[in-house]
């Protein structure tokens, strides 16, 4: 992007207020899991990690707040905005909720489109350098038929036909005005913008930038995502914390009664620190200290689950997924075996892994060294990550 683009303030407005009734299931489609994390989180990560996006906000239903909080955990987002009774109304609420920021541009994206790429976002932003509106789209390549009662009645020429996607980007003031004055029933923001007399350009979308609408869509998306992940990597992590006066230790997010606690700037969860380093190592992103310096006040007493979630997000931001974790805790005491199940379940909840993809083991050093003298606990972890080629 050019220097002029860098000066622009650009919001990503993610619309996630739908009920997703066609998909079925206990929660709306945007909150169902895809590749280990909610569908919505995939979209959020794409915009949160894009250098051309200034702020990200999400439109949700009030009753989905707990699901949204899970999907958005740890991400730098504006407070969620209450949606309306229709998508069009939800977008208007979202735009009005951002008006105080005096933004130059806004990219409006469906929360149920999880695989939007940085390239597609770039294309929309570049289109806005020339036009007041620009939308991601792909040309129609298949033959089109008009049918009645499941019979072909007519051929529809496919020349100059495009499948509209999101994000759909606009000059902020122009699209806000268009929404405020629009009639009901527009199929998307581009239709509404054109009805207001705004020029809307077509820019290159991507075949994989599809919208999840049914259970079959979700299954296909998960399978397609997994099929692309041929680059298998393994990372290792190791950490040590000494004991200090206390009455419990935290391991894999589980508090275990003990004669001491582990010393550290954060919550000193030695197992989760090793896991964080293992995941970051697998993708070449350094170690926990690089991202969360122990001398910084903001990380004092921090829950180490936040560090692990950050590392997993880095994997997802690369289009990959965490495949397996193997953790070994080294200590004479406390006894780890009675807590295996809870620790594995908690680590699975943090990372999005199923129980059979999390291994928790424990061993001693036969009373040798600092762990053998009950001076502290060590942990080592191995993370397996799959990335696209």
The percent range for helix content is: 25-40%
CATH architecture of the largest domain: Alpha-Beta Complex
Query: What are the segments in which pLDDT stays under 50 over at least 5 consecutive residues?
Result: 1-5
The first-level CATH class name of the largest domain: Alpha Beta
Spatial arrangement of strands, main beta sheet: 5-4-1-6-10-7-11
Shape: elongated
Kindly, what is the distance between the CA atoms of the first and last residues, rounded to a whole number of angstroms?
Answer: 25 Å
Give me the number of helical elements.
Answer: 13
The quaternary state of the protein chains shown equals: single chain
CATH superfamily of the largest domain: Spore Coat Polysaccharide Biosynthesis Protein SpsA, Chain A
Rg (CA only): 24 Å
Largest β-sheet summary: 7 strands, mixed
Instruction: Calculate the mean pLDDT score and round it.
Output: 93
Please give a handful of descriptors for the protein shown.
five-stranded mixed beta sheet, 389 residues, seven-stranded mixed beta sheet, Spore Coat Polysaccharide Biosynthesis Protein SpsA, Chain A, disordered N terminus, alpha/beta, 13 helices, single chain, 60s Ribosomal Protein L30, Chain: A
Overall description:
By secondary structure, the protein is an alpha/beta fold. It is built from 13 helices and 18 strands. It has helices at residues 3-7, 39-48, 65-72, 87-98, 118-127, 172-180, 189-195, 215-227, 270-282, 288-291, 305-317, 340-351, 369-372, and strands at residues 10-16, 33-34, 37-38, 55-60, 81-82, 105-110, 133-139, 144-148, 151-156, 162-171, 200-204, 231-245, 248-251, 254-257, 260-262, 321-330, 358-363, 376-387. Strands 5-4-1-6-10-7-11 form a 7-stranded mixed β-sheet, sandwiched between helices. Strands 15-12-18-16-17 form a 5-stranded mixed β-sheet.
């Amino acid at each position: 992007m050019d220097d002029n683009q860098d000066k622009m303030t650009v919001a990503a407005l993610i619309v996630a207020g739908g009920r997703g009734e066609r998909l079925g299931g206990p929660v709306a489609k945007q909150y169902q899991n895809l590749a280990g994390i909610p569908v919505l989180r995939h979209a959020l990560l794409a915009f949160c990690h894009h250098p051309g996006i200034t702020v990200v906000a999400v439109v949700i239903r009030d009753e989905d707040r707990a699901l949204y909080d899970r999907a958005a955990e740890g991400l730098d987002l504006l407070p969620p905005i209450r949606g309306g009774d229709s998508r069009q109304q939800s977008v208007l609420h979202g735009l009005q909720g951002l008006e105080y920021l005096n933004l130059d541009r806004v990219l409006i994206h469906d929360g149920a489109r999880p695989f939007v790429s940085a390239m597609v976002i770039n294309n929309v932003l570049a289109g806005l350098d020339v036009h007041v509106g620009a939308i991601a789209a792909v040309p129609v390549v298949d033959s089109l038929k008009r049918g009645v009662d499941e019979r072909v009645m007519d051929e529809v020429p496919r020349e100059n036909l495009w499948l509209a996607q999101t994000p759909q980007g606009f000059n902020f003031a122009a699209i806000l005005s268009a929404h405020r004055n629009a009639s009901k029933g527009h199929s998307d923001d581009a239709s509404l913008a054109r009805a207001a007399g705004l020029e809307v350009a077509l820019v290159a979308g991507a075949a994989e930038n599809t919208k999840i609408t049914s259970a079959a869509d979700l299954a296909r998306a998960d399978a397609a995502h997994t099929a692309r992940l041929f680059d298998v990597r393994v990372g290792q992590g190791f950490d040590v914390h000494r004991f200090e006066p206390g009455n419990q230790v935290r391991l894999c997010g589980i508090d275990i009664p003990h004669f001491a606690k582990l010393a550290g700037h954060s919550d000193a969860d030695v197992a989760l620190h090793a896991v964080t380093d293992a995941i970051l190592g697998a993708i070449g992103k350094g170690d926990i200290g690089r991202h969360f310096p122990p001398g910084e006040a903001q990380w004092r007493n921090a829950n180490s689950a936040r560090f692990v979630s950050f590392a997993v997000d880095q994997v997802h931001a690369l289009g990959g997924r965490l495949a397996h974790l193997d953790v070994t805790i080294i200590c004479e005491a406390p006894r780890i075996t009675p807590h295996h199940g809870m620790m594995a379940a908690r680590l699975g909840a943090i990372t999005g892994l199923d129980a059979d993809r999390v291994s928790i083991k424990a061993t001693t050093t036969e009373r040798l060294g600092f762990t053998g003298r009950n001076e502290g606990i060590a942990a080592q972890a191995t993370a397996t990550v799959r990335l696209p080629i």
